[in-house]
Design goal:
single chain, 241 residues, alpha/beta, Rossmann fold, nine-stranded mixed β-sheet, 9 strands
Length: 241
């Protein structure tokens, strides 16, 4: 299997997504657009596409961020979806999936930074790929102020108190995670270093956790939940070939 990772910033690293692919022994390639990498010309060398997060939004213009071409990324994501590849978007990546399918991202009711619970919806309880999640209180990472748009056929599988769209199934092979199950201690240190005014925001917003608590959190359990999800997606993709 061949995994391609679209990464927008050095500090928005793939974390446990990359570890899963390496543990499987899968071939991994990158488009690190922050380093000037181009997107693949076609989807032939890809089985899995992981689209990572970033401080941008799907509405960010090239003049604002020269290395982020939202339209080209959306076109590439749509090519992968149309080619029946397995596609997972994280945070900005989830929003880009929605945009590529005609949905419009929106601002989340609450800004969330830290580790907070999500709850599976009734549809989420029926999704076999999430059957290993705690139905009422699964602690996952958050680092966002926006959320993905919905399209015909998309289903919200999980929500949080601060955001009603945490995990979305767009198709059986295409999922968007507004939340972050890939976090580890190294990633959160980089994110904190690149988040302006986090100390002040911690005092202002309800769902922003103390940075020191974020650093001390043990991410092992959520990483394991992500790997189990990806294992199930892997099986579905192979069965579709």
């Amino acid at each position: 299997m061949r995994v391609h990772i679209l990464q927008h910033e050095s500090f928005e690293a793939p974390g446990s997504y990359l570890k899963w692919a390496e543990n499987k022994g899968y071939e991994v390639t990158f488009s690190k657009v922050f380093e000037g990498d181009k997107l693949p010309e076609n989807t032939e060398g890809i089985d899995f596409l992981f689209v990572m997060g970033g401080p941008q939004s799907p509405a960010t213009k090239l003049e604002e961020c020269p290395h982020f071409d939202t339209k080209k990324e959306q076109e590439f994501i749509k090519k992968c979806i149309d080619a029946k590849k397995a596609v997972v978007g994280v945070c900005l990546g989830a929003q880009l999936i929605g945009e590529s399918l005609g949905g419009k991202f929106d601002h989340s009711p609450e800004k969330e930074i830290g580790n907070f619970a999500i709850e599976l919806t009734e549809e989420g309880l029926k999704d076999e790929k999430l059957s290993h999640f705690d139905r009422n209180r699964e602690i996952v990472g958050h680092w966002h102020g926006d959320m993905p748009g919905l399209v015909e056929g998309s289903v919200v599988l999980a929500k949080s108190v601060g955001c009603p769209r945490q995990i979305i199934r767009f198709t059986p092979l295409v999922y968007g995670f507004q939340c972050h199950l890939e976090f580890d201690s190294e990633i959160v240190v980089e994110l904190i270093a690149n988040e302006k005014n986090l100390e002040q925001e911690f005092e202002k917003f309800r769902y922003i956790e103390n940075p020191e608590e974020i650093k001390k959190y043990d991410y092992t359990a959520m990483n394991k939940k992500l790997h189990e999800f990806l294992d199930k997606l892997d099986i579905e993709y192979k069965n579709s070939l």
